[in-house]
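During the no-cost extension, the postdoctoral fellow (Dr. R.K.) reprocessed legacy sequence entries with the updated structure-token encoder. One reprocessed record is reproduced below for audit purposes.
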Amino acid sequence: MNSVIKIKNLSKRFRVYDKPLDRLKEWLTPKGMSYHWAFWALRDVDLKVNHGTSLGIIGANGAGKSTLLKILCGTLSPTSGSLDIGGRITGLLELGSGFHPEFTGRQNIFLNASLLGLSDEEIHEQLPKIIEFAELGDFIDHPLRIYSTGMALRLGFSVAANINPDILIIDEALAVGDAYFQQKCLRRLKEFKEDGGTLLFVSHDPGAVKLLCDEAVLLHEGRIAEQGSPDDVLNYYNALVARQVSDKASFKIEKARKNKKQPAAQRSGTFDALITKIDVICDKKPTRTFVSGTKGEIAVELIALSKIQSPTVGIALRDRLGYEVFATNTYRLKQKMKPLEPGDKMTAKFALGFDIGPGNYTVTAAVHSGLDHLQECYDWADKFIAFKILPETDSYCGGVARLSVKTDVKVEKSDKTDTGELLETIFGEAPHEINLSDESSSWMFSGWHPLEKTNDGTIRWTHRVAVFVIRVREKAVVKIDASTDVSQCETAPLKIELLANGKTVGVKEIAVPQYQSLTFKLPDEFAGQVTRFSIQCEKSFIPSEIYGANDNRELGIMVRSIISE
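Re-encoded structure tokens follow.
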């Protein structure tokens, strides 16, 4: 596989001056006089990233992550070493970088995209998609200085992720976004990855790293301390953090030998106590497979090698992707624990119901002091054993959690006022028209393919059914400027039905593959109202089945605009 990033012996040194005056003194004094001290942010970093790889970069603050990414993006130069990058690289490193506070959001899109190497033509082509993704509404034409931090993030990410880079770099920026936009960004990054893009992702969120990344590297004090799968690297980082917190010089990090009956366990701690056995027990017998909802227990056996005044024993269950689905310990459960003397053996049992979804899980256990293993960790045994949960015969749920559920369903008729008030509450800012050349296309919901540039202008293809929301003007007329492929109407006109809030308000036909205005007169009750519309085509087609093209989309009609009069 081709490497798109090749780094060899890369180092970066900064000169640090204790006082601003020292910089001037060093410049004025004879050669050889030094008033600074050297700080090496990166030392001898070797790294290769293959095309299509998603690489997570983790490490504590000051480990060198941001310095490395700035060198990759070209905003810093290395002190020594070599760097080879193949392809267009785009980075979202710091909020506000590449933006001007007095420019509007729209103007800043042009500024930032031009700094990233796009031509005016390319920017104009991507502009609707960027504006639609950012969801800033009217603020897109207001100065950046009035934006909140979250709004600035929306704009920055939208530019970085929608200009089709070969390599995309994200540096912890998602941490400041709201939950909705974080999820939207993660979906976009997954799409970028699935499309074959190369992603470098810095985050302190283990779940995000595991979700997005195929590989990970751990930077520690400017050097690569570990490289491998995200799960292994994050576990190593976890042990490294515990080592720094512990004052025991005897701390070690090691990996247990692989055992055919259980996954490789990674051990870390001071080893003042050792976990000797972990079992999942059902019906008083060790088991590794049982049905969701079964009652059982997890038993952790350990032996003390030193005196431990106040031990804590904890467990954590992880799914096949490494996500922690449940964790607890004796400290949290307020279990009274006796001090341990050297040679004492202890068995801690956690009785619980395995109310989790079907799948493969692992058990991690730890013995430490205090609330968590970062206080003083004696032994951390990661992924010590594995077990499998089978679905119930009459399973009523999916997902990770098997929650207790009771249902109560009631159906009653709603009046038009209820529907209108609800649509007004949710979609109160809906426009009177949808012009595909601006952000109003964000009011097109399910059933629409992405924007396309054609000789007839910007269009969007529908599926057989497509949904949009607009506010109807006083004449209660809706016009859809649309056409379709010749295959849709060569034997008979294609019928297009329009539904308003679930009720048919008209049926029109497209007889020839030319743009025409499909005009629908709505009942007067819709005048001035926010309304949910559904376009329903009599039939759809798949280009690859007709023309042999590499296009497997389901297509109905192509729309240039939707206008209410």
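The CA atoms of residues 19 and 35 lie 9 Å apart. The two ends are 56 Å apart (CA to CA). The remaining legacy entries will be reprocessed before the final report is submitted.
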